[in-house]
Design brief:
The protein is of the alpha+beta class. It has seven helices and 19 strands. A hairpin with a 4-residue loop joins strand 13 and strand 14.
Length: about 375
């Protein structure tokens, strides 16, 4: 409908009106009347709609006419769509530039992938080049090539009334879903059954099965609905406050990453060598939400001991990019406790962390191959079309 409306409006404009609109658009949207008249006299041609394209974003100009570049179309508010194809993997995809955010879309092994990407204009990279490289990198380096177990962390199950019926719904942070992005806070559909299995509560809905680690239950919320979970009081006594946090020797800094936590941050552990009681220095960890790129800041400081930690990184799709690695002069280690591979771009190079890996940030642990990893925002802006 949107495309039809724009075409209809354009078709009913006179050639003079079209010329004026083109002049204003090419000059930033604001001009004096005299300047419009002068520019119009020196401008030939008109806009031609490429009918085989499906969106207004594919508005183009013939070479004989005054051309609209991609950057000019973006400034006008049009989206730019580029189809990509990997001969290596026989996979199709699409890059869409919405001006304020650029996304890559494709489907692989039954999962619909959507990620933010960026291109380096100074290197004259095209959307097709960047999108193809990242799509092939995902398939060869980031995809698991196995079925993931769908999990909920920081979960609870509530009971609700609706349309004269009582029903149960689980709430939590999802991972391993083909439908939802890892670390998304979701509400499930109506719960059909629950049972305990190997340290997890298995929640079955009409179409899905969720595995909920018992130590990640939000017992403060579940206390309101204790009868939903079998042997709840026994489970609460055994698992409340019993999450296993990684640890590390004094004089080392450990950053723990996981895909079910927002921005991949799980925890930071640091005990100074001169600590008398072996207590981890507490700090502040929080995202910095930017207009085009978010970052994550982890800072701690003890004034009396003059110990300072300042770690900052940009979170991308299954990788992070450090821009501060201040660790009080101590070695920095990174650990991945999730179920997907995570890459870390450090001052020593790119370090690959398989699930369960812990590696020191040193050159010996960096990848020898140069990878083109997703470089856009981890949580790109949502676009309603």
């Amino acid at each position: 409908m949107e495309e039809f409306v724009y075409e209809k409006i354009w078709s009913e404009l006179s050639e003079g009106d079209k010329k004026v609109i083109r002049v204003i658009a090419k000059n930033g949207g604001t001009m004096k009347t005299k300047d419009i008249q002068e520019a119009s006299e020196n401008m030939n041609g008109g806009i031609k709609m490429q009918q085989e394209k499906s969106t207004i974003s594919e508005l183009i100009m013939d070479d004989a006419d005054a051309p609209y570049t991609e950057e000019e179309l973006r400034k006008l508010g049009y989206k730019i769509e580029k189809d990509i194809y990997s001969e290596k993997y026989n996979i199709k995809g699409k890059v869409i530039d919405y001006f304020f955010v650029t996304k890559l879309f494709f489907e692989y092994e039954g999962r619909k992938i959507e990620m933010g990407i960026q291109r380096n204009i100074l290197k004259r990279e095209t959307y097709e080049e960047v999108g193809l490289k990242i799509m092939e990198t995902y398939i060869s380096n980031l995809a698991l090539h196995r079925v993931r177990k769908m999990q909920l962390h920081f979960w609870y199950i509530g009971e609700y009334e609706g349309k004269g019926k009582t029903y149960k719904r689980a709430h939590g942070i999802v991972s391993g879903s083909d439908k939802f992005t890892d670390s998304m806070d979701i509400n499930t559909s109506s719960v059909q059954a629950v049972h305990i299995e190997a340290g997890e509560l298995v929640v079955t809905t009409k179409n899905s099965v969720y595995y909920c680690p018992l130590e990640y239950c939000r017992f403060d919320k579940q206390d309101e609905f204790p009868d939903i979970i079998p042997e709840y009081e026994k489970i609460k006594e055994q698992y409340k406050g019993k999450r296993n946090y990684p640890s590390i020797e004094s004089g080392k800094v450990l950053l723990v990453l996981v895909n079910f936590c927002e921005f991949y941050f799980h925890s930071l552990h640091y005990v100074p060598l001169d600590s008398e009681d072996g207590t981890t220095i507490e700090g502040i960890a929080a995202p910095n939400i930017g207009m085009f790129q978010d970052s994550y800041l982890i800072q701690s400081y003890e004034e009396d001991l003059d110990h300072r930690i300042d770690i900052r990184y940009f979170p991308h799709f299954q990788n992070i990019e450090f821009y501060s690695e201040e660790t009080d002069g101590c070695p920095l280690y990174i650990e991945n406790i999730g179920d997907v591979v995570i890459y870390a771009k450090t001052h020593c190079g790119v370090i690959k962390l398989e699930p369960g890996d812990r590696k020191e940030v040193i050159r010996e642990n960096a990848e020898k191959e140069i990878l083109v990893l997703p470089n856009g925002d981890l949580y790109p802006a949502r676009v309603e079309e």
